[in-house]
Write a structure and sequence with these properties.
The complex is a heterodimer of chains A (325) and B (45). Chain A folds into 2 domains: 170 residues, Rossmann fold; 149 residues, Dihydrodipicolinate Reductase, domain 2 (2-Layer Sandwich), CATH 3.30.360.10. In chain A, 34% of the residues lie in helices and 29% in strands. Chain A has 12 helices and 16 strands. In chain A, strands 7, 8, 9, 10, 11, 12, 13, 14 and 16 form a 9-stranded mixed β-sheet that branches. In chain A, strands 3-2-1-4-5-6-15 form a 7-stranded parallel β-sheet, with helices on both faces. In chain A, α1 packs across α10, α6 packs parallel to α8 and α6 packs across α12. Chain A is globular, with a radius of gyration of 18 Å. With 45 residues, chain B is mainly alpha-helical. Classes of the chains: A alpha/beta (325), B mainly alpha (45). At the A-B interface, α12 and β16 of A face β1 of B. β16 of chain A pairs antiparallel with β1 of chain B, so a sheet runs across the interface.
Chain lengths: 325, 45
């Protein structure tokens, strides 16, 4: 199969590397607006990799396309690809991108192609963890997602911007918009990260989780941040972001009912967000290319893949999941 | 003068109560089991 990766930042490069090491992938087509970057990645990936020049907006020929360009630059390209009947995996974690991509659902459904939205560390891995936890329960009442850390510079800019926007939570059958940076909560992430203060932020997790869990009462997403992060959120970034940040973590808490009564399932993962996000995006692309999407149309990974085999394969690729309790 | 004396008494009493609560509030045994553990391959089968 032929898989394309558009956008060779921290996530896109890792996704390309994962795809190149997948037996069923015969060719990995790479595209980025920075030609030297494409050459560099092609050289490092070996015989399966092939460079393709062109702007982000022009569509690329492949069985599945992983769109890993910065937030705000994905929707037009995905629209073109879906219009041509190509399966797409998008890594964007921007609320606006995710909402616009979910709006492409009817067209993707009509053309019979799956469109995975938000397939990276968070959302992405968090959606699979929520599905895995929900599968242990009879009914799901609440889902609470927390995230710590950033991948590459585009992710750091998104983190900065999301603390200055409006958070979207789902509560009792309706959307609730609250200022980002409010609602402090202490979350315990897998070791060695430990505890961190998390706040409301403009995160798209609820947009992806609510349609996946019909009847869920509450869905919230929080982002770990320091006082300086929150203080400077309304300002432009005061300094250039790091090429890649260090360890990050996600934590997903699902509350619901099982045979033995009310139960709380807490799952988490700890890794470099760019590395784990790339592995999730690549694995999602492989699932689509091998025809294992649960249905056509747009949705998050909680809706479109089977959680257990996905997490098992992710574990073999080095992204380990932990359970609290 | 009376006001200062009353304020000092109030502060002293509050400090005393806080100290008692602080001391009595600590202790107990920390959790002996639980915590994060990696999902086993069996759980993912």
């Amino acid at each position: 199969m032929r898989v394309a990766v558009v956008g060779l930042g921290a996530v896109g490069t890792r996704a390309a590397r994962q795809l190149a090491s997948t037996d069923s992938v015969t060719e990995v087509v790479l595209r980025d607006i920075r030609s030297p970057r494409v050459e560099e990645v092609v050289a490092s990936l070996g015989a399966k990799a092939r460079a393709e020049r062109g702007p982000y907006a022009s569509a690329v020929e492949a069985d599945v396309v992983v769109v890993a360009t910065p937030a705000g630059q994905q929707v037009e390209m995905v629209r073109t690809l879906v219009g041509r009947g190509t399966a797409v995996v998008s890594t964007s974690d921007s609320v606006e991108d995710v909402a616009a991509l979910l709006d492409l659902g009817p067209e993707a459904d009509a053309r019979g192609v799956p469109l995975v939205v938000g397939a990276a560390f968070s959302p992405g891995l968090t959606c699979v963890l929520a599905r895995f936890a929900a599968d242990q329960l009879d009914t799901v009442d609440e889902i609470h997602v927390s995230r710590l850390g950033t991948g590459g510079p585009a992710c750091a800019r998104q983190h900065h911007g999301s603390l200055g926007g409006m958070a979207i939570d789902w509560r009792d059958g309706g959307w609730q918009r609250r200022p980002a940076g409010s609602g402090r909560e202490l979350s315990w992430f897998p070791d060695p990260i430990g505890a961190a203060d998390c706040y409301r932020a403009a995160l798209p997790d609820a947009l992806l989780l609510v349609p996946a869990f019909q009847g869920v009462g509450r869905v919230t997403a929080r982002l770990a941040a320091t006082r300086r992060d929150r203080l400077t959120a309304p300002l432009p970034m005061l300094r250039r972001p790091h090429p890649e940040a260090g360890l990050g973590a996600v934590r997903v808490e699902v509350r619901g009912r099982a045979e033995d009564g009310i139960r709380v399932e807490i799952l988490g993962a700890m890794d470099r967000p760019g590395v784990a996000g790339g592995a999730v995006a690549a694995l999602a692309a492989v699932e689509l290319a091998e025809g294992r999407a649960r249905r056509p149309g747009a949705g998050g990974l909680a809706e479109l893949v089977e959680a257990k085999p996905f997490l098992a394969e992710l574990g073999r690729r080095g992204v380990k999941v932990a359970r609290f309790g | 003068m009376t006001l200062i004396r009353r304020a000092l008494v109030a502060v002293g009493l509050a400090g005393g109560i806080a100290a008692v609560l602080r001391l009595r509030g600590t202790g107990g045994t920390p959790p002996q089991r639980g915590g994060w553990r990696e999902l086993s391959p069996d759980e993912l089968r």
